[in-house]
Amino acid sequence: MTIIYSPEARACLSTINTWWRANRNKNPNLFDDEVERVTGLLENSPEIGHVYKVRGGVTIHRVLLEKTRHYLYYWIDEDDGVIVVASVWGTPLGHGPPL
Predict the structure, then answer these.
(1) How far is CA 25 from the centre of its chain?
(2) Residue 43: CB atoms within 10 Å
(3) Staple partner for 9: which of 5, 55, 60, 71, CB 3.0–4.6 Å?
(4) Overall fold of domain 2-91
(5) How far apart, in whole angstroms, are the C-alpha atoms of residue 41 and residue 54?
(6) How far apart are alpha carbons 49 and 7 in whole angstroms?
(7) How far is the C-alpha of 52 from the C-alpha of 59, rounded, in Å?
(8) In sequence order, which residues have a C-beta less than 8 Å from that of residue 91 and are 6 or more positions away?
(9) pTM summary value
(10) What's the rounded Cα separation, in Å, for the pair 92 and 82?
């Protein structure tokens, strides 16, 4: 399956990556590396994430980026063969993104 990113997901990734690089000097690439690793897993096994909610008939999954403590939220479009990343959200916020 192919991974595509919503505009919101792109904005989240950019914001988090900028923050991570500015504040995590010991491993500034960790966030990027973890996103790359998890999206690589999703391409081959899109069901690895847990069901987060069903909205408008679409099942939204989330998968934890364990080292950086963020969730990647996505849905699967089987007909088009794509995984749509909807958002990335930090676990310390205590709630999910507005999806």
Answers:
(1) 22
(2) 12
(3) 5
(4) YaeB-like fold (3.30.2310)
(5) 22
(6) 21
(7) 8
(8) 64, 69, 70, 71
(9) 0.90
(10) 29
Q: For residue 22, which amino acid is it? A: A
Domains of the chain, by residue range, sit at 2-91
Neighbours of 34 (CB within 10 A): 19
On whether the CB atoms of residues 75 and 85 are closer than 8 A, the answer is no
Token digits of residue 34: 């973890």
- The packing angle between helices 7-23 and 30-44, to 10°, is 140
- Which residues lie below 8 Å from residue 28, measured CB to CB, with a gap of 6+? 20, 21
Q: What is the pLDDT of residues 7-44, one digit of tens each?
A: 999 999 999 999 999 999 899 999 999 999 999 999 99
Full DSSP string of 51-83: EEEEETTEEEEEEEETTTTEEEEEEEETTTTEE
One-letter amino acid at 13 equals L
